[in-house]
Amino acid sequence: LSGLDPAQPYFQSTPIEVRLDKSDAEFVDVIHTDSAPTIPNLGFGMSTAIGHLDFYPNGGKQMPGCGKNPLSQIVDLDGIWEGTRDFVACNHLRSYKYYSDSIIYPDGFLGYSCASYNVFETENCFPCPREGCPNMGHFADKFKGKTQNDFVKLYLNTGEAKDFALWRYKVTVTLSGKRKVKGYVNIALYGSGGNTRQHQIIKGTLQPDNTYTSFIDAEVNIGTVTKVKFLWNNNWLNPTFPKLGATTITVQSGENG
Predict the structure, then answer these.
(1) What membrane topology is given (predicted)?
(2) Which comes out higher in pLDDT, residue 65 or 148?
C-alpha cells in the first residue's frame, strides 16, 4: 500500500482500525507532503510515521513551488480549474505528482534515513548506507524486507515543478588565491549522464586555503563525473582584480558514496 499524504483531520492519533497503518499490508510506504498542523496552517496531511517507510520530501510541510501567488500558479498549469484546485491544496496534492514522476524516474527520489529534516541538511545522513536508500514512490517496494526498525523516516528534496526528481551530491571545495574577498562561488557538474545548471555553494567571505562543503540537489543524475566548472563573482568592480581559484574540488554521490 502506498499512502499519498494520508489525511490528518479526524485521523491523526486515532486507533489503527480507523486510519492507515503498517499492519494493513505486507509493505506500507507513505509520502507526507502537507503535515503542518491543521490549525493554523491548514495542513491536510498526517505528520506521524505510520508505515514501514515514511518519506518526508522537503521536510514534509511546505513543498517548493507551492508558495507562488495564485495567479502565477494558475497560469503555470493546464487550466484554470486545475490551477485553482492546486493553489488551494498545493502541498497536499504534491504527493500524487511525486508518485507519478517516480514511475518515470526509477532511480530518482532517494530517501535518506535521518532523525529529522534539519539533520538531513547536515552531513550526518549522507551518503546512503551500504544497503542503499529506498526510492520514494512507485519503486519503494524494492526496499521491502530491508528495514529492521519499527518506523523509518526518510528525507529528500524535490524540484519546484515537474520534473520533480533531484539527485543529491556533496561538493567540497578548497579555495586558492592571494587574499580573502567577498562574493559567491558557483559549481556546475558534468558527467556521463548529463550536466547540471550552476549551483551556488558558498556566499560571503571567500578565504583562500579554506575548505567549504555544501550539498547540491541536482536536476539530473550525472553518472560518472567528467568535469566540474568553477565560477566565482564578487558582484562589484574591484580595481585590484582579485583572483580566486580552487585547489581541489571533491564530488561525492549520495547514491553510492
Answers:
(1) Peripheral membrane protein
(2) 65
